Amino acid sequence: MSGEVAVVAFAQTKHVARDRERNEVELIIPVVREAIERSGIPRHEIGFTASGSCDYLAGGPFSFVMGLDAVGAWPPIRESHVEADAAWALHEAWVAILTGEVDSALVYGFGKSSLGDVHEIMTLQTDPYHVAPLWPSMVDLAALQASALLAAGEVTERDLAEVAARCRTAALDNPNAVVAEAVDADELLARPITHPPLRDADVFPVTDGAAAVVLAAGDLARDVCSRPAWISGLDHRIEPQALGVRDLTTSRSTALAGANAGASAGGLDAAELHTQFSHEEPILRQALGLGDGVDVNPSGGPLTANPVMSTGLIRIGEIAARIHDGRIDRGLAHASQGPALQQNLVCVMEAR
């Protein structure tokens, strides 16, 4: 069993609110090609391919199979798929490398949220017996969580506005962001509340896009990458499905995943969090014990670009890219899936 696995390459699309020219395959092809070229590993030598997507976005069964046209499935390849954010596909690939079955893997995620109403589509992730029939959108459930957080006195509306303002300003340096502007909390607080208690700036923008990373084991990673982003810890946990049996103001699953991944060891320079809504950042900061010295969502995060089913993978890629070019030495990436931070994955990476 190999104990060393690193991210050696990362690529993503220049995300847009609505891509009218390309289908999913055409979104995937450039990022897969770029990630493989950056990895230095020939395509035919990559041992495993894993992807993450959501059939409901495309509106057809097994639509992920179409994505294989972008990676080339002939001659036959070893391939897998998760109906979830591609961060969970990366977890599967990581396990495959750890067990020694393969020494490299390509992981990609994709989604065109603009094809339908993504706020309503994601209702299908909720309890099919007690919640889904009421048809609360994902924004409705996020607003419920934000209301609980505000009522508990854990945050104020200004705190949320400051999160949104910081992300939008940080995105000015991110060419892949959909939303970017130099703005402060006062300006955002002056804007109307659209999803009480949330404003538009507190909610992710609809985004079309894709991303890919390449993982490699031990000596192979050292051979192809001058500064690999070594995965020192990776874990994911889940909250109860029933919203009424958990405290929406905390994230016990994130805290547990973070502890198992080594987040509590400290020394983190930056963290990319899968915060689709502004109120999620303080919840995750508390769960992961992130202090003021940690640069949170330096890319702008999902509040500025949220290509569903690859957003979590992008968080891992953004931290890996900063390790690759020497901007940071140790970082944390977080991915989430489901309503009100139901499922959470934490990945800690470092340079050695």
Task: Explain what this protein looks like in three dimensions.
With 352 residues, this protein is an alpha/beta fold. The mean pLDDT is 95. Strand 5 (193-195) and strand 6 form a beta hairpin. The longest helix is centred in the first third of the chain and has 16 residues, at 24-39. It has twelve helices and twelve strands. Helix 4 packs across helix 12 and helix 10 crosses helix 11. The chain is globular. It has a domain at 5-116 and 206-229: Thiolase/Chalcone synthase (Peroxisomal Thiolase, Chain A, domain 1), CATH 3.40.47. The protein has a ten-stranded mixed sheet. It has a two-stranded antiparallel ribbon with strand order 5-6. It has helices at 24-39, 55-58, 64-67, 86-98, 118-121, 138-151, 157-170, 185-189, 218-224, 252-261, 280-288, 311-324, and strands at residues 5-12, 48-52, 79-82, 104-112, 193-195, 198-199, 208-217, 229-238, 270-272, 295-296, 330-337, 343-350.
Short description:
With 352 residues, this protein is an alpha/beta fold.
